[in-house]
Amino acid sequence: MSRDQNLAVAQATTLKPIEDIAARLSLSPQHLEPYGRFKAKIALEALTSAPSRSPGKLILVSAINPTPAGEGKTTTTVGLGQALAHLNKKVAVAVREPSMGPVFGVKGGGCGGGRSQVLPMEDINLHFTGDIHAVTSAHNLLSAMMDNALFHGSVDLDVRQIRWRRAMDMNDRALRQIVIGLGGRLMGVPREEGFDITAASEVMAILCLTNGPADLIERLSRIVIGFSSKGKAVTASEVQASEAMAIILKDALKPNLVQTVEGVPAFVHGGPFGNIAHGCNSILATRLALSSADFVVTEAGFGFDLGGEKFLDIKCREAGLWPSAVVLVATVKALKMHGGAALNEINKPDLTALKVGMSNLVKHAESVREYGLQPIVAVNRFATDTEDELKLVTEESRTLGLEARVIDVFGQGGEGGLPLAEAVVTACQASTPTPRFLYPLEASIEDKIRTIAQKIYGAADIALLPRARTDLERINSLGYSKVPICMAKTQLSLSDDPKLFGRPRDFTLTVREIRLSAGAGFCVPLTGDMLTMPGLAAKPAAIGMKMDASGKISGMF
Predict the structure, then answer these.
(1) What is the pLDDT of residues 35-67, one digit of tens each?
(2) Which of 61, 88, 352, 467 is spaced 20 to 30 Å from 251 by Cα?
(3) Does 557 have pLDDT greater than 70?
């Protein structure tokens, strides 16, 4: 399907009133806060007043390293949820909110595709219920109050050691590094500044990891904005911003409920990037889904090396959750590219490149097993795939002890995901595995980074550049050595070099700096050339988007 055909599926779908979708999960009407006819927020009281029942089975959908061809992880997540509904299971989908930066940038929309989408996709891809705007505003309120405190001299904050940057929900490379406060004495304190995209904001991470309003305020108050002239950490509480920030976020805390093409309930809440932040939807939405459905299908950003690892080591550790099944999405196209095929050649049959590219899938499967979990491989079928290619992937997978199922949820919706759904149900019949994290929190930050690099990426070792060493010393001195690690790394490769496809070996992972996110409760090592404010491509997706006189949108994937 083209982008316009994909949009046509969404526009041809007769959506059910959001009250009917909530009823499928036995959510009380009194907890429903509609935003129009087809989307709503769910009051947090729904979590505490829900009837006592065993929580549902949590299913994590992750993937191999993505390529420009697209692997369809969100599409598979939605399609699997629909397939489980075909098996008469009480199911909910829980995914992230798309950021408008990528929507108008390279990838287009982030609602799945074809007959496996969350709807209304135009709303979700744009302003939705205002959550991401609220995060942007709360983030920038802290920036404004910090600069105001600097202007009035009410806080000892060294302008050379400010760590808090501004945020915007758009790709804009021109804002990566700027100078503010120019224009004279009344304009503020001149200093260097920069912007991160909102999906990389610590406020977004906090929103997705918090367990409620009181915890939200506490986490916001711990944000480290910089350091004093004496080297003391200066926090959001010291510029008296945390309560006001929480007020801006009070409605954004509430999970959003929408539906899939086939009317399956879907919680779409929170949008941290997977290659910069922790890449998972909110704990509150996941808990609400688990309290109201027997099966909850969720995803984690990009490949298992990023989203999957962070889902388990950060989100599950924080929330006390653990998946009953893990799905690894792979495509013939991507495997051929990981095997050396050029992007313009991946639609041509190439069993040799495909077999070589299987090494990427194998490594991710090994990484899943590090956690005591057994992955199920979902081979997301494209129209250009040959039967021989699909057979090679499934047979090679089974030789490695991996169960592999070919699916077509893009073209067939839930029906096209039935083989995968049946395998997932079988896996979930066993008791939920005991959580087994990759590293203990008591380990040093350097050792935790090394463990991730070696066990998940396959690196020989890590190298901390001087800035990272200085950051590490400061984080340790502040007493934050026992926090989890949230790696910022390219999604295109297991290594920190986006050009190294397949399964790189004997490489050194280079860490250039380490940022402390005290409110979120983790630290962020930045590797390679990873940037926290993306830029637009030469031909961004925005160029192909159109709206006619009636308001009908085209060109949005």
Answers:
(1) 999 999 999 999 988 677 889 999 999 999 998
(2) 61
(3) no
Element (H, E) at 117: strand 116-119
Q: Is the domain of 94 the same as that of 224? A: no
Confidence of residue 268 (pLDDT cuts 50, 70, 90): very high
Judgement on whether residues 220 and 316 belong to the same structural domain of the protein: no
Considering only CA atoms, which of 204, 207, 39 is closest in space to residue 123?
Answer: 39
CA-CA distance, 463 to 469, in Å (whole number)?
10
Q: Which of 168, 160, 175, 166 is nearest to 142 (CA)?
A: 166
Is there a single domain that holds both residue 451 and residue 391? no
Same domain as 413, residue 521: no
Give me 245's structure tokens. Answer: 């920030």
CATH of the domain at 502: 3.10.410.10
- Give the C-alpha separation, 472 to 407, whole Å: 45
pLDDT tens digits along 150-204: 999 999 999 999 999 999 999 999 999 999 999 988 888 999 999 999 999 999 9
Which CATH number fits the domain that encloses residue 37? 3.40.50.300
Which H helix or E strand runs over 42?
strand 40-42
Give the tokens for residue 68.
Answer: 């420009």
Segment 372-401 mean pLDDT: 96
Residue 159: which CATH number? Answer: 3.30.1510.10
Q: Percentage helix, strand, coil, to 5, in the chain?
A: 40, 20, 40
Spatial neighbors of 525 by CB under 8 A, at least 6 apart, are: 449, 468, 485, 487, 488, 511, 513, 514
- What is the spatial distance between Cα 71 and Cα 357, in angstroms, rounded to a whole number? 14
Residues 271 and 174 in one domain: no
The answer to whether the beta carbons of residues 413 and 73 sit under 8 Å apart is: no
pLDDT band at residue 1 using 50, 70 and 90 as cut-offs: very low
435 is a domain residue: no
Tell me the two tokens of residue 212.
């409620």
pLDDT of residue 107: 61
Cut 0.90: pTM above it: yes
- Domain housing 269: 3-129+252-428
Whether 322 and 300 share a structural domain: yes
Task: Report the alpha-carbon distance of residue 164 to residue 203 in Å, rounded.
Answer: 11
Residue 8 has pLDDT above 80, yes or no: no
514 assigned to some structural domain? yes
The candidate with the shortest Cα–Cα distance to 261, out of 417, 126, 99, is 417
